[in-house]
């Protein structure tokens, strides 16, 4: 093992605190080659696909990547905006919002950055930049409310792996989940109630979560359980009776059985059973992305309408909603207990001097990236 080279530790150097909001990641462009690069990194993660490496290498490189890259690129093109991939721009906006919210709560010393597990800005690059800018306390905040080894667990892996070659490791803290956090449930409830104020209440509310292979549930992954708890709490907050809502799982990948019931066939069946007005919300996604904007709001909408459904509404993700940013700030605050809130006077002096010597930009790192 060789460790990364660092300048000698400066006596009395000022430590800073940082939060990294980490999301899944997304391609850099909606093109076949960029999607291929992204899918290759994503689907080579042993946390995501638990098949013996040698077997998977052939399936991935000879079947999945050649066929899926082009198909997925077309889907990405259908949701791309002037700001790029919605997942990335939404996560960046959340990081900026979180920085502002924490500032208002008196945490002037905190830096907030966003990073992606796959693609850019890459988690190792962001962690290295934070360290270079003097952060010696880092809170890793995954963008996933429900813990799964396939998502949250994989972010932890990438963090551990990065610091495996660092000599002077910062203090690390991790958010594990917030599927039952009051602020998160409140933000979801407000978003549904606002929607109903404008569009009226539907006959049924479908809560659609991203699926995982059923096998991972049997092998101890708590994800399924946490999704069901979120759904129960949201239903209670909305005072819904059991026959007014359903929990489903979307985005099945591959041939194996995934968590059931599957979203698309369930919605089609509801339409055939005579449901005319339906709302779908995706509480497991905190940012709108391909899986919500294309799969739910386009494909599943089509499945509903072509089976006799009349009125389909997709309720957007929390994205930058003020209630969600406030909840994120609460979640972060609950994990940084004991960290200094204010910059010590000596640090203010130092920042001033560094600003004068033109290094201010480097210290003002983070969300602006
Ligand atoms: C919200 C939690 C998520 C879980 C759990 C999850 C598991 C999981 N996903 C795949 C395969 C794919 N997912 C893809 C996109 C995608 N997945 C999530 C979130 C979770 N995935 C998000 C937010 C996104 C959207 C990314 C974006 O750029 O907008 C894709 C890529 C798109 C496609 O080609 O369909 C794949 C592939 C597996 C195998 C898995 C669990 C084992
Ligand atoms: Fe996924
Ligand atoms: Fe999908």
Automatic annotation (TrEMBL):
Swiss-Prot/TrEMBL keywords: Cytoplasm, Heme biosynthesis, Iron, Lyase, Metal-binding, Porphyrin biosynthesis
EC code(s) of this entry: 4.98.1.1
Broad class of enzyme this protein falls into: lyase
Pathway(s) annotated for this protein in UniProt: Porphyrin-containing compound metabolism; protoheme biosynthesis; protoheme from protoporphyrin-IX: step 1/1
Top-rank lineage group of the source organism: Bacteria
Catalytic activity: heme b + 2 H(+) = protoporphyrin IX + Fe(2+); Fe-coproporphyrin III + 2 H(+) = coproporphyrin III + Fe(2+)
Pfam families for the chain: Ferrochelatase (PF00762)
Binding-site residues, Fe(2+): 210, 291
Compartmental location: Cytoplasm
GO molecular function per UniProt: lyase activity
Family: Belongs to the ferrochelatase family.
Function according to Swiss-Prot or TrEMBL: Catalyzes the ferrous insertion into protoporphyrin IX.
Protein name according to UniProt: Ferrochelatase
Species in which this protein is naturally found: Duganella lactea
Taxonomic lineage: Bacteria, Pseudomonadati, Pseudomonadota, Betaproteobacteria, Burkholderiales
């Amino acid at each position: 093992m060789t460790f990364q080279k660092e300048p000698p530790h400066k006596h009395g150097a000022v430590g800073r605190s940082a939060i990294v909001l980490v999301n899944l990641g997304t391609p850099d462009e909606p093109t076949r080659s960029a999607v291929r690069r992204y899918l290759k990194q994503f689907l080579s993660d042993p946390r995501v696909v638990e098949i013996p490496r040698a077997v998977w290498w052939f399936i991935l490189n000879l079947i999945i990547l050649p066929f899926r890259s082009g198909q997925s690129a077309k889907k990405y093109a259908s949701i791309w905006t002037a700001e790029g991939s919605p997942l990335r721009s939404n996560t960046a906006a959340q990081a900026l919002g979180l920085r502002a919210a924490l500032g208002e709560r008196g945490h002037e010393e905190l830096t907030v950055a966003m990073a992606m597990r796959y693609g850019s800005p890459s988690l190792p690059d962001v962690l290295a930049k934070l360290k270079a800018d003097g952060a010696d306390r880092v809170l890793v905040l995954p963008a996933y409310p429900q813990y799964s080894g396939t998502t949250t667990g994989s972010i932890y892996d990438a963090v551990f792996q990065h610091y495996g070659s660092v000599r002077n490791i910062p203090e690390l803290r991790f958010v594990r989940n917030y599927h039952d956090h009051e602020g998160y449930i409140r933000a979801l409830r407000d978003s549904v109630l606002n929607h109903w104020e404008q569009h009226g209440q539907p006959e049924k509310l479908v809560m659609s979560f991203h699926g995982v292979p059923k096998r991972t549930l049997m092998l101890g992954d708590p994800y399924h359980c946490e999704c069901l708890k979120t759904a129960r709490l949201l239903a209670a907050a909305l005072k819904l009776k059991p026959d007014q809502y359903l929990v489903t799982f979307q985005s099945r990948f591959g041939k194996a059985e995934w968590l059931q019931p599957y979203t698309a066939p369930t919605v089609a069946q509801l339409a055939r059973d005579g449901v005319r007005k339906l709302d779908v919300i995706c509480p497991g996604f905190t940012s709108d992305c391909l899986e919500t904007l294309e799969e739910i709001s386009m494909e599943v909408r089509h499945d509903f309408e072509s089976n006799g459904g009349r009125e389909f509404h997709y309720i957007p993700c929390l994205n930058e909603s003020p209630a969600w940013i406030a909840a994120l700030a609460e979640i972060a605050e609950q994990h940084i207990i004991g960290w200094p809130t204010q910059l010590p006077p000596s640090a203010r002096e130092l920042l001033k001097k560094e600003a004068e010597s033109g290094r201010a930009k480097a210290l003002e790192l983070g969300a602006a990236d």
